[in-house]
Amino acid sequence: MVAVARKFPEEPESGELAKFLHRSSRGKSKTLSESAWRKAKEDASKRMQSGDWIGSQCRTFLAAYAILHEQIYGIEPEELTPSERFFALAVISRFFHHKFNDDPNLLAAFMRWTWIREKRTEEWRRANRQPGRRLGWRYQFSGSCLTDWKLDVARGRG
Question: Considering its fold, how many domains does the chain have in total?
């Protein structure tokens, strides 16, 4: 048997394949900038005061999570770096679309329930000097938390 040397084509110079292979991700940020984050937090704060969530973007709900985290625990959620915010927005977008049919008022009601419950729990922990886990964004926007809410609704408490 004779070994045949395979020749691989040189990098294409033109054509559709060249365009596909040389696509650049420049211009497509993989983060949520500090200025965009500040604006989202301002929007979330206004909406939390007014109760009007119509037209809210996913970043507004992530910002509301961060504001509530700061109010309940007294500290910022350090994990929400610019790149983690970008990732969280993708998760929240799917959650919002698939679980809430893009209804911002329903998602806001769910978040309100979550944080009312967490506020009571955190107050108890502090009063009794007990440790406990905090509410992370991944749990807030998860099927597990959603199931807890639906169970409370079914029990007539949600």
Answer: 1
Residue 79 has which token pair?
């994990």
**6 in a domain, yes or no?**
no
At 4-21, the pLDDT tens digits run 566 555 555 566 666 666
**3 state SS for the chain:** CCCCCCCCCCCCCCCHHHHHHCCCCCCCCCCCCHHHHHHHHHHHHHHHHHCCCCCCCHHHHHHHHHHHHHHHHCCCCCCCCHHHHHHHHHHHHHHHHHHHCCCHHHHHHHHHHHHHHHHHHHHHHHHCCCCCCCCCHHHHCCHHHHHHHHHHHHCCCC
| Residue range of the domain that includes 118 | 31-154
pLDDT tens, residue by residue, 69-118: 999 999 999 999 999 999 999 999 999 999 999 999 999 999 999 999 99
2 in any annotated domain: no
